[in-house]
Specification:
Layout (H helix, E strand, L loop, with lengths): L2 E5 L6 H10 L3 E5 L2 H10 L4 E5 L4 H13 L8 E5 L16 E4 L4 H18 L11 H12 L5 E9 L1 H8 L1 H23 L4 E6 L2 E7 H18 L6 H6 L2 E4 L5 E4 L3 E9 L7 H15 L6 E4 L22 E2 L5 E2 L2
Helix pairs in contact: 1-4, 6-7, 7-8
């Protein structure tokens, strides 16, 4: 049952809207105080938020900004309820809601707008079911957006190394826990360094993308690696930790020693005019990832190559320039 939270006064038309929604199978709850509603949202995430602007205009705007600026909650549909005379006054490019209702809307109109918002959200949503992070459609749209944006950005492709043998040894359930842990680390560090300018997406499996302003990319990557390398030990059995490696079988069924998972972060600087299409960004990242896979332990690499003629996709024989590569114990190394 989809849950709808109405942050509004407990009077008409909100009581009537809630009743009409309940009759259509929705679960509804009215909160007349924005502060208490915020606590409920973070404790028990609803499927939709109907927010009365007139309850407290400043707090209402702050709540919308906080939710849409949170990498884990930005997908929550928000319907803003406004007075009819406010329709032409609001700058919708600055107020990040998904739709609006006026306080004069009937129960039928409110129900229709709610159903439309859910349908639109379902059509657009591509969040990964394991981590809840935005998926490929959103990732591609975000990369295309920064290709046209002013300033300097970093698109970082993240994946786990030695993850298959870990799954083979401990099972897919433990592997899923590691992926969720990595997602939390990425979100935490990107939010800490980039705030609302940051983005984290889950391509699928053990592949992720994060986008931050270029000037913080190195700091974010160093902290991600440090945090991940500390936490991964909690997902390795004590016997394997003492031994220092996993014992598993290769594709030929032969016993072999392999390290537990580490991460590679391939960072592609982006600015207006450097790339025309997101596929070009991914191609450069693939080159960097290929180089990183030759290095032991967790590592990041920022592409420092100059734009030579028309070569953005590695058409000339050159190796990626290394900058700030992180070794398994935190030391910096060049290739």
């Amino acid at each position: 049952m989809r849950k709808i939270l109405l942050v509004s006064e407990e009077k008409s038309p909100f009581r009537e809207w809630a009743k009409a929604l309940q009759e259509k199978g929705y679960s509804t709850e009215i909160f007349p105080e924005i502060q208490k509603a915020t606590e409920r949202i973070f404790f028990d995430l609803p499927g939709m938020l109907i927010l009365q602007e007139g309850l407290h205009p400043e707090l209402a705007r702050d709540l919308v900004s906080a939710l849409k600026g949170d990498l884990r909650l930005s997908f929550l549909p928000i319907l803003l309820v406004i007075k009819p005379e406010r329709i032409s006054e609001i700058d919708w490019e600055e107020y990040f809601v998904d739709d609006f209702l006026t306080e004069r809307a009937t129960e039928k109109e409110a129900l229709s707008r709610v159903q439309l918002a859910f349908t639109r959200a379902q059509r657009l949503a591509d969040n990964n079911p394991l981590t809840g992070l935005p998926g490929n459609t959103t990732i591609l749209r975000k990369i295309e957006e920064i290709l046209r944006s002013p300033g300097y950005w970093a698109v970082a492709y993240v994946d786990l190394d030695n993850f298959k043998p870990y799954n083979d040894t401990y099972g897919f359930s433990r592997g899923d826990e590691v992926i969720r842990m990595l997602a939390r680390v990425l979100v935490s560090k990107v939010e800490a360094h980039a705030g609302s300018k940051g983005f984290v997406g889950h391509i699928g499996g053990d592949d992720f993308v994060f986008i931050v302003p270029l000037e913080v990319a190195e700091g974010v990557s160093r902290e991600i690696i440090q945090n991940f390398d500390e936490l991964i030990l909690n997902f390795v059995d004590e016997e394997d930790r003492r031994r220092g490696f996993l014992i598993t079988t290769d594709r030929q069924g032969v016993l072999c020693r392999l390290p537990w998972p580490s991460i590679s972060i391939a960072i592609v600087p982006v600015w207006q005019g450097r790339f025309q299409h997101y596929g070009e960004v991914a191609a450069v990242a693939a080159q960097i990832k290929h180089y990183l896979k030759t290095m032991p332990g967790s590592a990041f690499l920022i592409d420092r190559r100059k734009e030579g003629k028309k070569d953005l996709l590695g058409q000339e024989e050159r190796s990626p320039g290394a900058e700030g590569q992180e070794g398994p114990k935190g030391e910096s190394r060049g290739p």
